[in-house]
Amino acid sequence: MPIDKPHARQLSNIACDEDRFMKRLLISVSIAALSACGAQDNSNDIEPDTVSADETELLLPLPEQTSPAIVSEDLAIRIKTLADDTFEGRGPGTEAGEASADWIAAEMARIGLSPAGEDETFFQTVKMVNQTVDTENSHFQLTKPDGTALPLTPKENVVFWTKHQDKNELSFDATDVVFVGYGSVAPEYEWDDYAGADFSGKTVIMLVNDPGFATGDPELFKGKAMTYYGRWTYKFEEAARQGATAAIIIHETEPASYGWDVVSNSWSGAQSDLVRSDGGADRAMLEGWITRDSAEELFASAGLDLEALKQQAKSNSFTPVPLEGVKASGKISQSIDQLESRNVVGKLTGKVTPDEYVLYTAHWDHLGKKSEEKTGAPGEDFYQDQIFNGAVDNATGSAALLEIAEAMAADDLERSALFLSVTLEESGLLGSAFYAENPLIPHSQVVAGINMDGALPIGRTKDMVVVGYGASELEDILRDVLVEQDRVIKPDSKPEAGHFYRSDHISLAKKGVPMLYADGGQDKLDGGVAAGKAAAAVYTAERYHKPMDEYSDGWDLSGFEEDIQALYQVGLRIAQSDDWPTWYEGNEFEAIRKQSLEE
C-alpha cells in the first residue's frame, strides 16, 4: 500500500547490462517452457524436476506443491518468500527487485496460468527513471525577512526532489513565497485556492488533505472522506499548472494519516517515475514537504499565524497569502538512471465467453533497500538492516493473487480471468497507470476487477472493510458472500486517509472498470473493534514503510485466509455469470464506463 508512494534503489547503467539482459531472457524462456507444461497438464502437483530448469535462474525456489484450496499454509509460503531479504525489498528496476517479478511469473506458470503479456510472455515492460538527489550538493533554502535562513536539514524537517528528467543540475533563486491554503482548484465545489493571483516563478506552500477533512462538514467536498483534491499527487500537479517554480506541502500527521518518518523514508533516495514524453517540463522545478514546526517558524517570521491561516483556508472565500519578505531558493544536483521494470500478467481462459474477463490486481513492488547502514547491534530492538521487506505491503496481496489464481485454475470458468501483478505502486501507482494507458486486454472487455493491498495478519474478524464504500454493485456481491461466512461488510473507518486514491484499483476505475478494494476487517473475534484498531495503529506507527515490515512465523493468517476466500468467491461468481456489475448511479466513474462500453 502506498502512502502514497516511494521508491527503488538506484542501480546505474542497468539498461546496458548485457549479462543481466541475457539472464533475464533465459528466465523468460524457461518460464514460458514451464507455462507450456502447466497448460498441457492442468494439475498443480508438478514434480520438482519439472521446474528445475527455471529454478536454476530464480533467486528463490518455487513451492514444490501447493493446494488449489485457499489455505493459510500456502499463503504463508508465498508471503515469506516474497518478503525474504534475498529480494532486497522488491525495488523496481533493481536486480533483486526484478527477480521477485521473475518469481511471480514462474509461480503463475507453475500453477497453470497462461502468459498474457507482451510477445507471449508474462511481462509488460514499463520504462522508468530513477532520479536521486545528491543531498550533499543540493539545497532548498527559505530565507526569513531578517535575512537569516530557516534551519532545514534533509530528512529531519524537509525532503525535496524534482520531476525534471532531462537535466542533472537545476536551480532557482529568491522566489516569492505564497501560502495557497489547500492548493485546490475544484469548480464543482466552487473552490479556487489560487484565485486572483499569478504564480509564475513563485514558490507555493500548502496544507495536506482537503477542506472537507478540516471542517468535518459533510456538505464540503466529501466531509471527512478525502477527495482526490487532498492527494499530494494532485497538489503538485495543480501547482505546476499554476506556473509555480516550487511547491511545498506542510506535513501534519492526522490529515496526512502517516507520520513524518513515512515522508522521510518515502521521499529520500532514488525516486522512481515513468519516462515522461516532455522530460518533466510540465512540473514545478522542485517539489517537497516540510514539517509543521518548520512551517510555523517560517510563517511567524513573516508576522503570520499558521493556525489562524488554516482556519481561513477552510472557506471558499480564502485568497492566497504572500509571506512578505520570505524568499525561496533551490539547487538540485541529481543522477538520472534510465531503467526498466515490468508488470506481470497471467490469465485463465474461459470456456463460454473467453473475451470477457474478471480482473485481479496486486502490486509486487516495495521500497527496496535504502542503504547498507545498520542501527544498533543484531538482536537489539532498534537494529535495522535497511531492507524494506514489505511483508504486509504488499507480499500479502501478491500471495493472495497467486492463491486465487491457483484456486481458479482448478475451476471450469465460463469467463476468463486476468491476474495483474503491477510494479511501481509505491512510486505513485505508476505500474497500474501504465497498464491502464496500455491495456493488454481492452477495458471494455473487463467485466470487473478486485484489488488486494496490505492485509494485516490479525486473525479472524466479523467484518470486511470496503475502501471507497458505496461505489459499485461489486459490494452487493461481496455482501452476499460475507453473509454465507456469517460476516458483514463495513465502510472504511478512516476515509480521511484517502485510501481509495492510494492503491492500484484507482488507475482502472479512472478508465471506467468497476473495481472493488476490500480490506481485512477490524472487529476481531478476539477483542472486538478496539483490538482491531489497536493492531492497525501499531502497524502504521511501527512497520508501515519501514524496515520492520517483515514476515513472522507467528502471524495469524486465519482471517486473511477467510478474506481471500471471500474475494475469490466474488470473482468466481462474476466469472460464472453473464452479469455486468456497474457503478452505482451518480458515481464519478459511471459515465466513463458507459462511454467505454458503447465504443
Automatic annotation (TrEMBL):
<dbReference type="InterPro" id="IPR007484">
    <property type="entry name" value="Peptidase_M28"/>
</dbReference>
<dbReference type="GO" id="GO:0008235">
    <property type="term" value="F:metalloexopeptidase activity"/>
</dbReference>
<keyword id="KW-0378">Hydrolase</keyword>
<keyword id="KW-0479">Metal-binding</keyword>
<dbReference type="GO" id="GO:0006508">
    <property type="term" value="P:proteolysis"/>
</dbReference>
<dbReference type="InterPro" id="IPR046450">
    <property type="entry name" value="PA_dom_sf"/>
</dbReference>
<keyword id="KW-0645">Protease</keyword>
<dbReference type="Pfam" id="PF04389">
    <property type="entry name" value="Peptidase_M28"/>
</dbReference>
<dbReference type="GO" id="GO:0046872">
    <property type="term" value="F:metal ion binding"/>
</dbReference>
<feature type="domain" description="Peptidase M28">
    <location>
        <begin position="343"/>
        <end position="552"/>
    </location>
</feature>
<protein>
    <recommendedName>
        <fullName>Peptidase M28 domain-containing protein</fullName>
    </recommendedName>
</protein>
<dbReference type="InterPro" id="IPR045175">
    <property type="entry name" value="M28_fam"/>
</dbReference>
<keyword id="KW-0732">Signal</keyword>
<keyword id="KW-0862">Zinc</keyword>
<dbReference type="GO" id="GO:0004177">
    <property type="term" value="F:aminopeptidase activity"/>
</dbReference>
<keyword id="KW-0031">Aminopeptidase</keyword>
